[in-house]
Amino acid sequence: MYWRQSLIALQTIAYKETNRYLRIWMQTLLPPAITMTLYFVIFGNLIGPRIGPMDGFTYIDFIVPGIIMIAVITNSYANVVSSFFGAKFQKHIEELMVSPTPSFIILAGYISGGVGRGLLTGLIVTVVASFFTTLQIHSIGVLISVVFLTSVLFSLGGFVNAIFAKKFDDISIVPVFILTPLTYLGGVFYSISLLPDLWQGVSLLNPVLYMVNAFRYGFLGTADINIWIAYGIIGLFILLLGTLSLFLLHRGVGLRG
Amino acid sequence: MKALSLQRLNKTYRGGVTALRDVSLEVSQGEFFGLLGPNGAGKSTLIGITSSLVTMTSGSVHIFGHDLIKHPWEAKTRLGLVPQEFNFNGFETVEQIVLNQAGYYGIPRRRARQRTQRYLHQLGLWDKRKQASRTLSGGMKRRLMIARALVHEPPLLILDEPTAGVDIELRRSMWEFLREINRQGTTIILTTHYLEEAESLCRKIAIIDEGQIIEHTTTQALLNRLKTHAFILDVSGTTDHVTDIPGYAIQQLDHSRLEVEIRHRQSLTELFATLHERGVEVLSMRNKANRLEELFLRLLEDNGSDQSAEQSPEAEAAENA
Questions:
Q1: Under an 8 A CB cutoff, do A87 and B89 touch?
Q2: Positive or negative CA dihedral for A100, A105, A109, A110?
Q3: What is the ipTM of this complex?
Q4: Cα distance from B95 to chain A (closest Cα, Å)?
Q5: Whole-prediction pTM value?
Q6: Cβ atoms B112, B99 nearer than 8 A
């Protein structure tokens, strides 16, 4: 293994990916800032006071962590799925396939792009949120670790989607039909304690619920679930998707003839 | 030392199409090697396998003695590829594309910048370095792909139809550039549809047809197989009554040009004298181009007829059944 050369290759992919989403910031960074501002205005300022407190916090304080998480999840996923599928579609992924760059470095490079965009978008939304409420932080360690791991997880999800995608429609099916429902039903706008027992049980099958709640714990110190279970679930999914991504990349599924 | 060694390479695509059948091929270090074949013969599959873009069904690939599967880093760093289709990111600048490629090969940024500058200068792209690659002309895009393939300075360069769709002037300058890097020690494997190009550049040639190598020899040996030479004569005088000169196959192209086929050891002086007697003066003479093309077509025809001969018993049996 040529570690020094591999590290240079990783830096190159990471730089290229970062450059890509920064170059098209009007498409990548601005829309989530606008969308999330509207969430804060409508749900936080206009409807929130009528809803009243949730789990002992004002409604806007309750939804801020979930809304940041929506931005992180969707942007991490979108960055990797669009970038890697674009590279496949334009065939410039061949530059990497021909080169000696190991599969895990290619994967790490693309994931770094997804995580970078996810975290930067999360930071932008956090700054926007600070105009609507005074943010409190219960545990900075939980906040950072949960947002980082969630971003890695959804970047990996985007990567697997991109590998299997054959046309542009294929990269929007998962975000629209799976990701969005899971996120919106993942306890962003409500506490699952408000749900009947049956739906509470169903909600616990939604992995996004654990991420949103663990992140909320970092802000507010309260959560519907045990945050260690959340870490376990995030870790398990990262392991599964990471292994699958490496396997697919190594075999050249969807890439090699 | 063999720059490239392919042993018993087989490729059957999903769906059952067999693209390569037991192909073995060796290319020596320093060679300028031509790989010819009609469309669908298996050239691109062979190059795809060598450059890791296509998975082989069976066989082995060694690049400068390194097994492509067992020692990918060693093998891949020694190979540069200029593919047939443009495959760079159209939104990136010319400079960025070459720099990134250097990065994928683990070349430190500073050295990568120096090399990028050198190759973009050599290929006449330095002034376009800040331009998005999609805005380049077709010829510039081809040169960009060559610069990209050379930035890690591979000792083996594979070019898949590098001059397709390129104008004559640019084609000639690319030929000169390739000759120069070959002189400096880079082994070059070239696939082309322009047989004139292969005749001019390649010292050795392999012809692939229906997934099999049907010929592998020096260009000269291949050309020597032509039993006749064809010349174009530019003449003055009346050419109406010269096509019947005994012993020569002469064709009148127009009022001032004749095409003459001369067998080995047949005298040109004798022909010129006869033409002179008939009032025709030879002003200039040149080889008819595309000699290789004739041979190429003949080999393909032979291969086709061999295969149909081999198949005929089966066909007969099927018919009887």
A1: yes
A2: positive
A3: 0.89
A4: 13
A5: 0.84
A6: yes
- For residues A98 and B154, what is the distance between their CA atoms, to the nearest angstrom? 12
Judged on CB neighbours under 10 Å (0-12, 13-18, 19+), A218 is: buried
B45 touches chain A (CB under 8 A): yes
- CB-CB: which of B54, B76, B77 is closest to A257? B54
User: What does the alpha-carbon distance between residue A256 and residue B15 come to, in Å, rounded to a whole number?
Assistant: 15
Crossing angle of helices A227-251 and A140-164, in 10° steps, is: 30
Q: Do B148 and A252 touch (CB under 8 A)?
A: no
Output B54-59 pairs: Cβ under 8 A, ≥24 positions apart. Answer: B54/A256, B54/A257, B54/B11, B55/A252, B55/A256, B55/A257, B56/B9, B56/B10, B56/B11, B56/B20, B57/B10, B57/B11, B57/B12, B58/B8, B58/B9, B58/B10, B59/B6, B59/B7, B59/B8, B59/B9, B59/B10, B59/B22, B59/B23
Contact by Cβ (8 Å): B222, B296: no
Continuous segment of H or E residues that includes residue B101: helix B94-104
Q: What's the CA gap between A18 and A106, in Å, rounded? A: 14
Q: Summarize pLDDT for A78-131 with one digit per residue, the tens.
A: 999 999 999 999 999 999 999 999 999 999 999 999 999 999 999 999 999 999
Q: Tell me the per-residue pLDDT of B36-60, one tens digit each, with 9 for 90 and over.
A: 988 888 999 999 999 999 999 999 9
Q: Are B24 and B6 in contact (CB under 8 A)?
A: yes
| Helix ranges restricted to H, A165-195 | 170-174, 180-184
